[in-house]
Amino acid sequence: MFLVRPAGAPARETGPDVDISKAVWLDLINPTPDEIARAEKALGTHVPRRDELEEIESSSRHHEEDGVLYLSTPLVRREEDTAFSLPIGFVLTDHRLVTVRYADYYGFDIVGRRQAERDPAKGDPSANELLVEIIEEVINRLADILEGLGRALDAISRRVFRADHPRDPARAGEMLRETLRRLGHAGDLASMTRDSLLGLDRILIYIGDRTEKDPQALKTRIKVAGRDIASLNDFDAQTVNKVQFLLDATLGFISIEQNDGMKVLTVVSAIGILPTLIAGIYGMNFHDMPELSWKYGYPYGLTLMALSVILPLFWFWRRGWFGAR
């Protein structure tokens, strides 16, 4: 989709009847090769393809050609219980901003609505102002994601460390497996958010060196956005540490559950060995066994087997392996 976003008017898809010569913001959303070619023809400059936006080298993400600034960064998007990261690109000239993205992002939509509500008599903001405004809204959205992630981790923490863990081993195991899945999702989301913040920070640094002619208010907004990113990076680092802590704690509880299972197997094995040994000894039926013709031999054997079960159970109970002392 190739949209034109003029001031004071709703966004319109480009066509033969749409004049883009005076538009400051052109928005390419999941563009086709034909739409990219039309954008290049209208702009007279190169528009990066998706494979170019996915490059990870700094020289590929931030560079200047013939006075045109090319910027790109991965940007995380969260949808219900899933999250993914897709590249976005900015082509910045002295008088025009071109955005290239492969998903709808809330921050872009907010700035688009503001653009449609502007007073046409005041004209479009500058390309730099639009870019900074988009970055500010994206930062706000990333802050919302991190806030939601923090609340989710608090809920996981209460669930992991609550006193009333399920007594049923099957339920406890399922709860711990679900916790691991949620922690894995949280770790992925925190990692993608950090990549997005890092990319935006580099973009701000890069455009901050080109704002000599911009108003002081815009320079101040860039500095404030940079400080916001720094604070979100700190919060993200704290979130990653909390994910790791909860992951270690969950794995510790899983080890405890496994140890409890091994204790049960140990108790069952221990109480079964001695009765089997006694039954095996008195089941050999040798001719010279003293107890073979003894009147009380059978109850004696049963008593020995009963004691061989009761005494180990008592010892395990004293050790606290099961039950309450």
From TrEMBL:
One of its GO terms (cellular component) is plasma membrane. Keywords: Cell inner membrane, Cell membrane, Ion transport, Magnesium, Membrane, Transmembrane, Transmembrane helix, Transport. CDD domains: EcCorA-like_u1. The chain crosses the membrane at residues 264-284, 296-317. GO terms for molecular function: cobalt ion transmembrane transporter activity; magnesium ion transmembrane transporter activity; nickel cation transmembrane transporter activity. It is a multi-pass membrane protein. InterPro entries: CorA_cytoplasmic_dom, CorA_MIT, CorA_TM1_TM2, Mg/Co-transport_prot_CorA, MgTranspt_CorA/ZnTranspt_ZntB. SUPFAM superfamilies: CorA soluble domain-like (SSF143865), Magnesium transport protein CorA, transmembrane region (SSF144083). It catalyses: Mg(2+)(in) = Mg(2+)(out). It is found in: Cell inner membrane; Membrane. Pfam families: CorA (PF01544). PANTHER family: MAGNESIUM TRANSPORT PROTEIN CORA. Mediates influx of magnesium ions. Alternates between open and closed states. Activated by low cytoplasmic Mg(2+) levels. Inactive when cytoplasmic Mg(2+) levels are high. Belongs to the CorA metal ion transporter (MIT) (TC 1.A.35) family. This is Magnesium transport protein CorA. It comes from Gluconobacter roseus NBRC 3990.
